[in-house]
Design a protein that fits this description.
Layout lengths: L1 H15 L27 H5 L13 H4 L10 E9 L5 E10 L3 E11 L3 E4 L5 E5 L2 E12 L10 E13 L3 E17 L2 E12 L3 E2 L4 E2 L4 E11 L2 E10 L5 E12 L3 E10 L12 E9 L2 E9 L5 E11 L15 H8 L10
Antiparallel strand pairs: 1-2, 1-18, 2-3, 3-6, 4-5, 6-7, 7-8, 8-9, 9-12, 10-11, 12-13, 13-14, 14-15, 15-16, 16-17, 17-18
Length: about 350
């Protein structure tokens, strides 16, 4: 039964990507977009699962992955992430979400420190250094579509607006927005959540004489709880300026009781396949949940360039009852007891 459900889930995700690639959404347009900062993953849990997160996001980071997921967040959720990249590059991210179960809003700020880069003229003479910097601010809103007559807690929609400020030598800014949908159904008595999201819609960003288009990305995805201890997810994505790619992730509860969870994760992301030599396209990590706090770690290899590390902290406050049976059961002792008979709650995001 589980294999049949998993097969149906994967067929849906793979089929959803057939018509996504069009125009400059292909390998022939590689390198033609600007503001690549907007494509960076937020939160170590998502990165450890290969960024297959459009249908999973139900916390503060949903404002960046799929704003429709904000409505499934706990009453209040806050996330902070720090990431060390290569060559002195670092990335910091802070987000929050506030949900009452029928509507929600959230926001995020992100900062990329590009380190120091040597500056040369056309003759190759050293002209000192410059420091690339990118900032982004996002605010989002989501609704349970019950307000339009849909079944309660089955369909959600959300939008998010963002402003990016980018500085290499010159400085430029641009507005963009995201829009997302989620739907919940069942497969052989297991809950399947489906998602669609369009990210970074807007005009181009002009750092020189010519404006470069934003890295618009279309995603279709799903997440399926196989049993109490296993969650799988997958996305098909079509990015402007590159070939369509597939993300897939798995999360396993290696240990769980009322107050503590230990989660192991593995992911695959085909976006970087063929771009660099060495180990790439895979990721892994773990999470430690203690009551209403979660610490997540992810490691993402960049082939011969080295290994990057992401660490995030997520806190939840207030009642965990906005989404009965939701992922918040991982964090709330009362919710875990109520739903699972003395602390045997699954890691379900629903």
């Amino acid at each position: 039964m589980i294999m049949k459900a998993a097969s149906s889930f994967l067929i849906f995700v793979l089929s959803a990507g057939i018509n996504l690639a069009a125009g400059d959404f292909n390998a022939g347009a590689k390198g033609t977009t600007g503001a690549a900062f907007l494509t960076m993953g937020m939160g170590a849990r998502a990165l450890g699962m290969g960024e297959a997160y459009s249908a999973v996001a139900a916390d503060a980071s949903a404002v960046s992955w799929n704003p429709a997921g904000l409505v499934r967040a706990p009453e209040i959720s806050v996330m902070f992430m720090h990431a060390n990249y290569l060559a002195g590059i670092s990335f910091d991210y802070l987000s929050f979400a506030r949900s009452n179960g029928s509507s929600a809003f959230g926001g995020a700020v992100a900062y990329l420190n590009g380190g120091e880069v040597e500056r040369t003229d056309e003759a190759g003479n050293n002209r000192g250094t410059y420091q690339p910097r990118d900032y982004a601010a996002t605010i989002g809103y989501a609704l349970d579509l019950e307000v339009f007559g849909a079944d309660s807690r089955k369909y959600g929609a959300g939008v998010a607006g963002k402003y990016l400020s980018s500085k290499i030598v010159e400085k430029a800014g641009v507005f963009a927005f995201d829009a997302g949908l989620t739907a919940r159904t069942s497969v052989d008595d297991m809950t399947l959540r489906l998602a669609f999201v369009a990210q970074n819609l807007g005009g181009g960003i002009k750092l020189d004489k010519k404006a470069d288009p934003l890295p618009t990305t279309l995603k279709a995805g799903g997440a399926l709880q196989l049993d109490k201890n296993w969650l799988i997810s997958a996305d098909v994505a079509a990015p402007r300026g590159n070939s369509p790619y597939i993300c897939a992730g798995v999360e396993h509860a290696a240990y769980r009781d009322v107050n503590i969870r230990v989660l192991l994760r593995f992911g695959v992301n085909t976006l970087t396949l063929g771009d660099i030599s060495g180990i790439t396209a895979v990721s892994g990590g773990f999470g430690l949940v203690i009551k209403n706090a979660a610490v997540d770690y992810a490691a993402v290899p960049f082939g011969d360039l080295g290994l990057t590390h992401r660490l995030s902290l997520t806190m939840r406050f207030g009642n965990a009852g906005n989404d009965p049976g939701g992922r918040v059961k991982r964090y709330g002792e009362k919710s875990a007891k109520k739903n699972s008979g003395g602390g045997k709650a699954p890691i379900s995001i629903w």
